[in-house]
Amino acid sequence: MLEQDVLKILVTEEELRATVQRLGKEITTHYQGKEVLVVGILRGAALFMADLIRQMDCYVEIDFMDVSSYGSATESSGEVKIIKDLNNSVEGKDILIVEDIIDTGRTLKYIIDLLKFRKANSIKICSLLDKAERRIEADVTVDYVGVEVPNEFVVGYGLDYDQKYRNLPYIGVLKPEIYS
């Protein structure tokens, strides 16, 4: 039923699995011998983060933030709203922010600045998808990128449109008539 709303598949289930394994190995190498607080950005990153931390062979603590600048729209409003904050202090900790997709970078820039203010020891970013051509915040660096995607509206594997399509097992482009 959901598949009828998908124009094309960008990243298959198999490609997602291989990407998550690759990222897990890269992150493990970086954090070898350290503890890392993995901060998942809800809701889109939840599926990716669950798979990612299972591929990481290092000490991991997890927490979540729910931050929005979209609502039910397809374009960022530019206004960032914290819906759910972290449960634990980040002071002195090495942080890995896990995102489903980095678009303009505005929301991520806000989160990074907040965690720096809260005195995190270090902050690295891992994103399953990156729309680098849409980046407005030039000083946002994504340390671990799964897949670069074109400027199309993507859904699946946690990514949604109006809270739908998160359960697709791949990343697909949503037909424009669905969100227009």
Task: Characterise the protein shown here.
GO terms for molecular function: guanine phosphoribosyltransferase activity; hypoxanthine phosphoribosyltransferase activity; magnesium ion binding; nucleotide binding. Residues 17-161 form the Phosphoribosyltransferase domain. It catalyses: IMP + diphosphate = hypoxanthine + 5-phospho-alpha-D-ribose 1-diphosphate; GMP + diphosphate = guanine + 5-phospho-alpha-D-ribose 1-diphosphate. This is Hypoxanthine phosphoribosyltransferase. InterPro entries: HGPRT, Hxn_phspho_trans, PRTase-like, PRTase_dom. This protein is α/β, with parallel strands linked by helices. The protein has one domain (14-152): Rossmann fold, CATH 3.40.50.2020. It has four helices and nine strands; from the N terminus they run βαβαβββαββββα. The protein has helices at residues 13-30, 46-54, 106-117, 176-179, and strands spanning 6-11, 35-42, 59-68, 81-84, 94-102, 122-130, 144-148, 154-155, 171-174. The strands form two sheets. The protein has a six-stranded mixed β-sheet with strand order 4-3-2-5-6-7, sandwiched between helices. The protein has a three-stranded antiparallel β-sheet with strand order 1-9-8. β2, α2 and β3 (59-68) form a beta-alpha-beta unit. α1 (13-30) crosses α2 (46-54).
